Amino acid sequence: MPRVLGVRPVPSSVRPTGGRVSAPEGWCPRRRGHAIPGRCRRRAGRSATSRPFVNPLAPVDVYALTEPRPFALRRQPSWSCPPSRPASRSHPASKGRKLLYRVRFGAVWVLSNRFDAPEGAPDGAHGRARVQVGEWRALTRRGGGQYAAVVIDSPGSSARETSGSAGTGGATGAHDEGPVRDVASARGAADTAGADGGAAGVRRVARGDAAYHAAVRDPLFNRLVPGGTPDAVAYPQSEADLVALVSAARDSGEKLALRSGGHSWVAASVRDDGLLVDLAAFDQVSIDTTARTATVGPAVRGGELGQTLVAVDLAFPVGHCGRPGVGGFLLGGGLGLNWGQWLPSCFSIRSMRVVLASGEVVTASATENADLFWLARGSGPGFPGIVTEFELDLRPLPRDIRLSSWTFDLAHVEAVTEWVSRAVRTLPASVEVSVVLQGPERPDGPATAGGDPDAPTHVVSVVAISYTDTEAEAREAFAALDEGPGPGIRPSGHTDRLSVAFDELHVGVDATYPDGHRYLADTFWSPRDLGDLLPRLADLLRRAPSGKTYFLSAMPGHGEGRTLLPVGEAAYGMHDTSLIVPYVIWGDEADDAVNRAWLNEVKAMLEPLSSGHFLSEADLRFSPERSAGSFRTEDWARIQSLTELFDPTGVFHRYPLA
């Protein structure tokens, strides 16, 4: 019998469907497949367990109590409850659509999509709640998203055989009988789904089909899509499907390109000819709270992973943007949250399962297939294999995360960047600092609906985030920034040590990447301080064709970026004092040429000051030399050698070319 141990947000872009499973005793199946633990009104002649329990990952209407009623969860093996049985207690009076109920183990997400903000909260406030053992808490609406329960396997059964559990999410905290494991794996279907039909049994959308254009382009974040036209898009559901696709490609000479999320700035998965393999089905998540590890599929979005881990008081350096799939993010190195302290995310990979060009499925780790493990951590879109799951090392969730920000008129860019360059060298590693140059169409800018009409047109903003456990630690961590850029230079906007949830840090970043737009980006590592680099870019920003375009910059390791990485441990090894990333953002195809010309000006200015590039956001399509320039010379030579070793016949596409 399945257990339902946690919930997670269901992105608006996801509409999962699935089979039916039996409802555990004491659960209430509700309209469109939802269930709440406890007693429920049952229709005459039909018990809860005899009614179908629809895949709870499907979009749901949340069942909320409308009147006070007593209930308590019943202890049963499928719940793995603690042996003690707390006394029943009456349900407190509910207000509006609030849902309150008692749970019996650990910390579990309660679910809702229709709850009011907390009493006394400002308009538009978002709320979130967890309930601890024996406590009552009200859950409030959070971000307007739907929430869904996660069905996992119970003793004596396998979630890998449960078709309704293919898109997993959160899990509860640990309870008395061991770690919570949320397992729903596309890998597990290898024994069934693809084994009979081979590559021919994998669904494809071929060139010429009515759905072809949408299959290639709709999942892509960037509307500036290159002209590549793959022969078809394939949708494998299991490792067996992937093995069959790789074997068929090897025999036929067909090349494979991979897509885990579609957030590549250069649409690296869209290549001429060959097969585009969409890994959307590989979105499994399994968390071991005792070992502090997570096993995740490549299609899991970083924002979703962060939310899932927060539910069990754990963290991982997921991307600052919540949308990318972790597959491409990790293979490219992964400059994630708190990366100055936690290092780029690829250094937190413990192991991975890889389908090789030979069709063999292997595990890669520091002790098993070590060369493959080295290659996978940083080689990005040139990696010659398909990773079906990553085992990640997790960290305790910082208990007190604080954000401070300062926004100044761009006229003060020199003083501001000199202040930051001085301050970061005395900041603790637990503080992450970014400096952003933005134009009038920034999210809160004067040219944006809802923005501040009196704000400066062009600004330089400093954002500092501390990852600590107490407010006192955060205050001490920020101390080096207290002096400011100097007398007479006052910020037009300032946020002082705002408390922020770990899984909400990506919200502000996501807002700077509007949907339906066209993007160019490039990256520049430099041995110079930001105070020497950013003032040179101020005039270029003022002349940018689009008001949405901006520069993002940082000094990883607080100016000690060159010594931040363990040298030679992974393919990812290019670091320096400062990193600058121009993001060119516009909406109209007619403006493609003028925005491309502007980025070329930026390149001409920064390249003489640069020591290399960050592969995942480099302009690989228009500057293919960026591939080699994103690695140390000796690492690039080793990448080339290992790529030939693992894929001698070229089953997988190499790095994107112009």
Task: Describe what is shown at a glance.
With 658 residues, this protein is α+β, with helices and mostly antiparallel strands. The protein is 17% helix and 21% strand. Mean pLDDT is 74; it is low at 1-196.
Mean pLDDT: 74
Annotation, overall tally of beta strands? 27
User: Span from first to last CA?
Assistant: 53 Å
Q: Shape, please? A: globular
Query: Beta-sheet strand percentage?
Result: 15-25%
Given helix and strand content, the structural type is alpha+beta
Q: For the CA atoms, what is the radius of gyration?
A: 25 Å
The CATH architecture term of the domain at 400-632 is 3-Layer(aba) Sandwich
Share in helix? 10-25%
SS field, number of helical segments: 14
Profile the largest sheet: 8 strands, antiparallel
Specify the CATH class of the domain at 400-632.
Answer: Alpha Beta
CATH fold annotation of the domain at 400-632: Vanillyl-alcohol Oxidase, Chain A, domain 3
Low-confidence stretches: 1-196
